[in-house]
Amino acid sequence: MGNFHLPSWHRLRKYIHLLCFVAFLALPFLNVIRADIPRQRFYFAGYELWISEFAIIFFALMFLMFLVVLSSVFYGRIYCGYLCPQMIFSEASMAVETFIRRKVVRKFGKPREILVRVLFHAVVGAASVLLAFIFISYFVEPRDLLKSLLSLDIRTAAGISGAAVTLVAYLDFSLVRLRFCTTVCPYGYLQGMLGDGNTLLVHYRDGDPKKVCIECKKCVRVCPMAIDIRTSPFQIECVHCGECIDACDEILGRLGKPGLIHYAWGEKGETVAEARTLPWYRRAGLRDAKRVIVLLVLACYAAGLFVALSMRRPVLVQVSPVRASLYKVDGGRVWNHFRYSISNRSSKPATVKFSLAQLPDAALSANPNPVPVKPGETVDGEFDISAPLSAHEELVRHFTILTGTDSVPMTFLAPSEAP
Ligand code: SF4
Ligand code: SF4
């Protein structure tokens, strides 16, 4: 191993947990991601998407799904150990419990279990309200939710869901915690299907014929899932957190020996430390054609999402002719009737001004024109187009309605002969 020093996986994990918590707090408030159910909007990367914008939502969901697949194929259950909110908040809850117990013992000289329980449940209860608020902010505009919370509303959908999620979070982080990962969560089982001989895993390797393992069992004691990684690297409970690696490195390090547990690229592959001299793509986990294909599929969805977002129009104008009567003749002019619908999908007010092209002598009568449309609003309306009646009028004339940003091809109908 030379002088190569591996990081403390515990410290790295805690930094990542902190980063994830900040992201979890910020994402719905910055409209980075929110499926706003009451408004029927999907917020993604600052874009306010309408539920009808199927292409963008499809590409966004497929991209996120393949990101999870890619992470599982390449890095096993790294998501569980480093990024999963269940893991982050369960470990935080256990740390809070330990902290309170230590403080109580220091203050009273002995553990007062009832006091510890009361304080612990008070902290978890308050934290559950906050977590439930943030979680529901992924589905309801945070300001609306705050109003429901401050008025202690348990009648609207937001209020009822807030109360229910608070209760679930409280029970989860005070009682269930990491048991969730081994009983309810399907991700561990999914990982079993997606992983293969090149997937990153946590592996115990004692290649010494005399066996270096000193049976201190520290790797077992620190394991949040209470398993012994030495028996198999494929235990469904293992979330690849790396705590056992740190523990063994520390214990055997005191004896001047390298640790026996490693992150390794499959049961037979190199450890992360051994792989440091390999090309970057092998170190990143790109080790066979299957991984190249997964990466290409992910890149296709990313490209599709990029194209769909770049082609998106914040103001959508739809115009259609009303053909209940093909045309009307009045005052020496021929009249065609049209209907429009303007959807402002942006966060700023917009105006749409209708005008005509390729229809000389024609006039457009709309009231109002331009049409003001507030952010998030859809305005429906009607207008007429009239042209002088002429004995030489064509039956069908093709022209264009201009909306300021769009050109809508349309037809104008007139009698073939003047009456
Ligand atoms: S921490 Fe290392 S030395 Fe101790 S029991 Fe586990 S594998 Fe063996
Ligand atoms: S065996 Fe090691 S990597 Fe797996 S959960 Fe336990 S401590 Fe984490």
Instruction: Please give the radius of gyration in angstroms.
Output: 32 Å
Cα-to-Cα separation, first versus last residue: 98 Å
For the report, how would you describe the main beta sheet?
5 strands, antiparallel
Mean pLDDT: 88
User: What is the H/E order?
Assistant: HEEEHHHHHHHHEHHEHHEEEEEEEEEE
Unreliable stretches, pLDDT < 50, 5 or more residues?
1-5
The distinct bound ligands, ions and cofactors come out as: iron/sulfur cluster
Overall 3D shape = elongated
Helix content: 40-55%
Strand content: 15-25%
Number of strands: 15
**Total helical segments:** 13
Question: How would you concisely characterize the structure shown here?
Answer:
The chain is built from 13 helices and 15 strands. The protein is α+β, with helices and mostly antiparallel strands. The protein folds into 3 domains: 9-30 and 76-190, no CATH class; 196-277, no CATH class; 315-413, Immunoglobulins (Immunoglobulin-like), CATH 2.60.40.
